[in-house]
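queue> holo job accepted (FE2/S2 (inorganic) cluster)
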Amino acid sequence: MENNTELKNYISELKSVFAEKSTIIMPALRFAQEKYGRVDDDIIEEISRNLNIPPVKILSAARFYHFFTEKAQARYRIEVCSSISCSLLGSEHIYDYLKRRLSQPGSGGGKNEFSVNRVGCLGSCGTAPAMLINNVLFENLNFEKIDAIIEGIKSGKDIDKILG
Ligand code: FES
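queue> job finished
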Protein backbone atom coordinates (compact mmCIF):
# COMPACT_ATOMS: atom_id res chain seq x y z
CA MET A 1 0.00 0.00 0.00
CA GLU A 2 1.30 3.46 -0.83
CA ASN A 3 1.74 6.13 1.77
CA ASN A 4 -1.62 7.74 2.50
CA THR A 5 -0.32 9.99 5.26
CA GLU A 6 -2.09 13.10 3.97
CA LEU A 7 -5.39 11.25 3.94
CA LYS A 8 -4.85 9.94 7.48
CA ASN A 9 -3.97 13.44 8.70
CA TYR A 10 -6.98 14.93 6.96
CA ILE A 11 -9.33 12.36 8.52
CA SER A 12 -7.76 12.95 11.89
CA GLU A 13 -8.42 16.72 11.56
CA LEU A 14 -12.04 16.05 10.64
CA LYS A 15 -12.47 13.66 13.56
CA SER A 16 -11.53 16.47 15.91
CA VAL A 17 -14.38 18.56 14.48
CA PHE A 18 -17.19 16.08 13.73
CA ALA A 19 -18.50 13.71 16.39
CA GLU A 20 -20.45 11.59 13.88
CA LYS A 21 -17.87 9.61 11.89
CA SER A 22 -20.16 8.88 8.96
CA THR A 23 -20.22 12.61 8.10
CA ILE A 24 -16.51 12.32 7.35
CA ILE A 25 -16.92 9.72 4.58
CA MET A 26 -17.70 12.18 1.78
CA PRO A 27 -15.02 14.78 2.57
CA ALA A 28 -12.47 11.97 2.96
CA LEU A 29 -13.44 10.49 -0.43
CA ARG A 30 -13.29 13.93 -2.06
CA PHE A 31 -9.88 14.61 -0.53
CA ALA A 32 -8.54 11.27 -1.80
CA GLN A 33 -9.91 11.83 -5.30
CA GLU A 34 -8.29 15.25 -5.52
CA LYS A 35 -5.01 14.28 -3.87
CA TYR A 36 -4.41 10.86 -5.42
CA GLY A 37 -6.61 11.12 -8.52
CA ARG A 38 -8.60 8.04 -7.62
CA VAL A 39 -10.54 6.15 -4.95
CA ASP A 40 -9.30 2.58 -5.17
CA ASP A 41 -9.41 -0.36 -2.73
CA ASP A 42 -6.45 0.94 -0.72
CA ILE A 43 -8.15 4.28 -0.21
CA ILE A 44 -11.43 2.61 0.77
CA GLU A 45 -9.61 0.47 3.32
CA GLU A 46 -7.69 3.43 4.68
CA ILE A 47 -10.85 5.45 5.24
CA SER A 48 -12.60 2.42 6.70
CA ARG A 49 -9.76 1.75 9.12
CA ASN A 50 -9.47 5.37 10.22
CA LEU A 51 -13.20 5.82 10.76
CA ASN A 52 -13.87 2.32 12.04
CA ILE A 53 -16.69 1.99 9.51
CA PRO A 54 -17.05 -1.18 7.38
CA PRO A 55 -15.42 -0.85 3.93
CA VAL A 56 -18.69 -1.71 2.20
CA LYS A 57 -20.24 1.50 3.53
CA ILE A 58 -17.36 3.59 2.20
CA LEU A 59 -17.47 1.73 -1.10
CA SER A 60 -21.22 2.23 -1.56
CA ALA A 61 -20.81 5.99 -1.03
CA ALA A 62 -17.93 6.06 -3.54
CA ARG A 63 -19.81 4.02 -6.16
CA PHE A 64 -22.91 6.21 -5.91
CA TYR A 65 -21.13 9.29 -7.29
CA HIS A 66 -19.64 9.27 -10.78
CA PHE A 67 -16.86 11.69 -9.87
CA PHE A 68 -15.12 9.12 -7.69
CA THR A 69 -13.02 6.88 -9.91
CA GLU A 70 -11.07 3.72 -9.16
CA LYS A 71 -8.44 4.40 -11.80
CA ALA A 72 -6.18 7.44 -11.77
CA GLN A 73 -7.60 10.29 -13.79
CA ALA A 74 -5.66 12.64 -16.02
CA ARG A 75 -4.11 15.62 -14.28
CA TYR A 76 -6.35 17.99 -16.28
CA ARG A 77 -9.83 16.64 -16.96
CA ILE A 78 -11.53 18.61 -19.71
CA GLU A 79 -15.29 18.14 -20.08
CA VAL A 80 -16.84 19.81 -23.09
CA CYS A 81 -20.60 20.32 -23.00
CA SER A 82 -22.33 18.59 -25.89
CA SER A 83 -25.92 19.54 -25.04
CA ILE A 84 -28.11 21.57 -27.34
CA SER A 85 -27.08 25.22 -26.71
CA CYS A 86 -23.39 24.44 -26.73
CA SER A 87 -23.78 22.09 -29.65
CA LEU A 88 -25.54 24.77 -31.71
CA LEU A 89 -22.71 27.18 -30.95
CA GLY A 90 -19.95 24.81 -32.01
CA SER A 91 -18.97 22.70 -29.01
CA GLU A 92 -18.23 19.76 -31.31
CA HIS A 93 -15.59 21.88 -33.09
CA ILE A 94 -14.18 22.87 -29.69
CA TYR A 95 -14.02 19.19 -28.71
CA ASP A 96 -12.30 18.22 -31.99
CA TYR A 97 -9.90 21.14 -31.70
CA LEU A 98 -8.91 20.16 -28.16
CA LYS A 99 -8.41 16.51 -29.13
CA ARG A 100 -6.25 17.51 -32.11
CA ARG A 101 -4.27 20.15 -30.26
CA LEU A 102 -3.50 17.97 -27.26
CA SER A 103 -2.43 15.01 -29.36
CA GLN A 104 0.28 16.97 -31.17
CA PRO A 105 3.89 16.41 -30.08
CA GLY A 106 5.03 19.12 -27.66
CA SER A 107 1.45 20.17 -27.02
CA GLY A 108 1.68 19.42 -23.33
CA GLY A 109 -0.64 16.48 -23.81
CA GLY A 110 1.76 13.97 -22.28
CA LYS A 111 0.82 10.64 -20.75
CA ASN A 112 -2.17 11.07 -18.48
CA GLU A 113 -1.76 14.85 -18.53
CA PHE A 114 -5.07 15.67 -20.25
CA SER A 115 -8.33 13.86 -20.84
CA VAL A 116 -11.04 15.33 -23.07
CA ASN A 117 -14.62 14.11 -22.83
CA ARG A 118 -18.08 15.20 -23.86
CA VAL A 119 -20.59 15.76 -21.07
CA GLY A 120 -24.20 16.86 -20.71
CA CYS A 121 -25.39 20.37 -19.93
CA LEU A 122 -23.20 22.23 -17.47
CA GLY A 123 -25.93 24.69 -16.56
CA SER A 124 -24.23 27.53 -18.40
CA CYS A 125 -26.31 27.51 -21.59
CA GLY A 126 -26.47 31.34 -21.76
CA THR A 127 -22.70 31.48 -22.18
CA ALA A 128 -22.31 28.52 -24.54
CA PRO A 129 -20.15 26.87 -25.62
CA ALA A 130 -18.86 25.86 -22.21
CA MET A 131 -16.48 23.34 -20.69
CA LEU A 132 -15.03 22.37 -17.33
CA ILE A 133 -11.40 21.75 -16.51
CA ASN A 134 -11.11 20.04 -13.13
CA ASN A 135 -14.51 21.54 -12.28
CA VAL A 136 -13.55 25.12 -13.24
CA LEU A 137 -16.02 26.53 -15.77
CA PHE A 138 -14.91 28.17 -19.03
CA GLU A 139 -17.56 29.92 -21.13
CA ASN A 140 -18.07 31.59 -24.51
CA LEU A 141 -15.35 29.37 -25.90
CA ASN A 142 -13.58 29.83 -29.20
CA PHE A 143 -10.28 28.53 -30.54
CA GLU A 144 -8.32 31.58 -29.32
CA LYS A 145 -9.62 31.06 -25.80
CA ILE A 146 -8.75 27.37 -25.94
CA ASP A 147 -5.19 28.27 -26.98
CA ALA A 148 -4.93 30.76 -24.11
CA ILE A 149 -6.25 28.21 -21.63
CA ILE A 150 -3.86 25.47 -22.74
CA GLU A 151 -0.92 27.89 -22.74
CA GLY A 152 -1.95 29.04 -19.25
CA ILE A 153 -1.99 25.47 -17.98
CA LYS A 154 1.39 24.73 -19.58
CA SER A 155 2.89 27.82 -17.95
CA GLY A 156 1.74 26.55 -14.55
CA LYS A 157 -1.05 29.02 -13.81
CA ASP A 158 -3.85 28.01 -11.47
CA ILE A 159 -6.76 26.89 -13.61
CA ASP A 160 -9.20 29.34 -12.06
CA LYS A 161 -6.88 32.28 -12.76
CA ILE A 162 -5.95 31.50 -16.35
CA LEU A 163 -8.38 33.93 -18.00
CA GLY A 164 -8.06 36.56 -15.28
S1 FES B 1 -26.08 23.28 -23.18
FE1 FES B 1 -24.01 23.59 -22.66
S2 FES B 1 -24.10 24.45 -20.71
FE2 FES B 1 -26.16 23.99 -21.16
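queue> The chain is about 45% helix and 10% strand.
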